[in-house]
Amino acid sequence: MPALKYYYLIIRIDTLTDTINVPKRRIESLDILRGAAIIGVITVHILLGAGRNVDSTSNGFNIAELAYAGLPMFIIISGYLHKCGKSYKWNIMNRVVPLMVVLTVATIAFTSLMYGYMYLLGYDLSQYNLLSDIWTVLIGKGVFTTISSDTFSAGHILSPYDISAGFYYLQILAVGYLIFYAIADPLLKDWRKTVAVIAGLVCFTALYLATIDIQLPFSAQLGPIVAAFLLTGALLRNYNVAIYLETGFHEFRYWAIFITAVILGAVMIIMFPTGMRMYNSYFGAYGPWSVFTFYLFAIFCGTVLWYIAVFLIKVPIVSDVFKFAGVSSLVFYTLHMFIAKLITAPFVTIGTEFWITVNADSERFVVLMLTLIILSLLTIALNRMKGTLKEENIDTDSVPSSSMH
Question: Which residues constitute the domain of residue 174?
């Protein structure tokens, strides 16, 4: 059936990275890294309250800053898994379009379901407009407003049934892809040109925020910095960095890189904390120029996280958990706030100040664990469904066409 085949097309995109071009030798550290990153993102949204932001002016080491490095690492991994040789049209149709389909389906379906769920629970939703809120999520919040104004917030919660925490990431990834696929293949033949363009994209982002300073649809002003991270990942692939990190531990240079990244990452967190709120195009305490410190922070701290992912390969249960989350990261990412609100809505009054209105740390931890468990069970069910659909497609394809009328 065409509907089932199309549904399978959507649910097979089960990571935030380029799964079709995964190398024949699956790189375990990449799965663990993105699994740790997605769990870190969900933890920030639920355990830290998703609205209780990291204080960018605080002194000392803030562990939440390290967790935020997971977001750019998602993008870098996507770039790492890029395989040259495909046409621009092919990449758009097979990467960008499915990504936007997932965003659209998730926004419409799960926002509507949450609206109905809260209505049945007795929430007064008369002051909210479901269709308008869905449209706002799809095109981006705060469009055509001044980013640096005191009232600007592209991450504000539209309504109690808003489940779009982090959805902006899918939008900026799609915009970043549009830039990346247009320039990647010829650039990657020369590392010097690639580095120059990366620097140019970072500078362009900073200059845009310093001068034009307008929120674009789909948060498109962040497209250049996303493309810079994608190019960074693709350049690392040229030198087989992931394979080296998994096999080069006998070399002095291997540990020198790790120690240097730890030191520089700690310096960035302590001396130049980002307090990053990427959904608001906010990168740190230095205004638009924080884009530069943010990029360096992401590289240094992301390197540390990558090393940790490599070390975890030898830890059976922990590595299996992170690999499972990594392979299922798109399901986890798009559904985590929907699941968390399903859990909490009957017991607390959810408003628009925080995503999850649960104050006690112990209670937020329970919500976090229940959300991760339900997401895991749902992912297992979807994987079984995909297996069933594959079998049905094979059986259908094996039937002679003359017998089908």
Answer: 2-397
